[in-house]
Give the backbone structure.
Amino acid sequence: MLFTSLAFLLFLPLVFGVYWYVVPASNSIRNAWLLVASYVFYGWAYTPWLALLIGSTVFNHLWALYVLRPQTQKWGLPLGVGLNLGILGICKYTYFISHLFETSTTWGKWVIPLGISFYTFHALSYLLDVHRKTILPERNAVNFGLFMAFFPLLVAGPIERAHHLLPQIQQQRNQNTSQWIIGLQLMAWGFVKKMGIADGLAETADLMFNHYTQFHGISLIMGIIAFSFQIYADFSGYSDIARGLAQLFGFNLLLNFNFPYLARNLTDFWRRWHISLSFWFRDYVFFPLGGSRANRYITYRNILLVFLLSGIWHGPAITFVLWGLIHAGGYVIQTALPTLPNTPITTWVQRILTWSFVTFGWLFFRAETPAQAWAMISQIGNTLRHNPFPETIPGKGMLVYVIPFFLMEWYQRQNPYAARFPKHPVVRYIVSLGLALWIVGSILSENESPAFLYFNF
């Protein structure tokens, strides 16, 4: 079920109303209702996927309770992690591997289960935290099921930690109008990002990437920039909607984006972009391997491995691996460079250079194949060399979306945890009403919004 669909427009008020006003004010009953609603939400797309989610939930719940014990810790954790990763690998990479060895003729059309990368990482964090004794195993099956399947974050994150979300599931939640308002404002901002910005930029990005041989290099650069802002608006828009939805039900989810395109370097960028995934790899891969405490070559190895795994996590394609390696290379080079003085000019120079590097990486992320990425780079170079100043520049219309988006981000930059609305009550009311009418009207229109980009991962 898409957040931008009519079905969800009917689903949300029903779930919210029953949750707060129909079922008894019992934490266990409310959790059970949310779990049922989450399963309906997930199974709406394709019912067989629900069986896989429930199977993963039952397995990890029982494994933490009965296998992760002191007497079995030598094999219990590796086997549990291996089984989770094995299922993820079979579902996500089997078809890709079969293509590499030209054995895919009997597979037919292979569809990756929605959100499997996200809820598998939820499960892994839980097993690892139980093993580390950061948390105790959750004995309540409904509570654990809700941790795995809570519908706002189920299909595209943020990737929650058991020690952050499970205590919220266990504790009593009460009606809080102020929290609801914050949630609705976050949702409104997320819908603006998705339907108002990302979907508009998608037209330019898709045109340039799908027909790159027909356009001048400047237009192709415009297309790459369009995708850079499209993926940011799309994914952060989903995260804002997810966090806003969670607020409506009394939960606070992890912040997933903190204005990443204002980052001064790649270290800063990865502290701001898809934060829940970045910190997951930091805490469960980078630090256990030694982090940056060893010599620089071990540090470089750890950086390379983290970004390689990040690329593989995003999907079964060589382009994602290349994207990860590009960031690993940039990260290693950055660590070897001297630190620049902290002045307004150097800050903006660093921001522009960091954003340019990240945007170059998005070219490989978006391209269907490495050959297409290199062909686009070649097309840019050849056309700029032979005709640096074309008479027309198709694609420049994307500025209609980029410039307002940048200004809105700048306006919001002081507080990443809540959407900033005008303080004057009349102005705030007019803006809120206008956004509500626009969002509902857009959802009800015949032009259905495309699925969020990170549904593919």
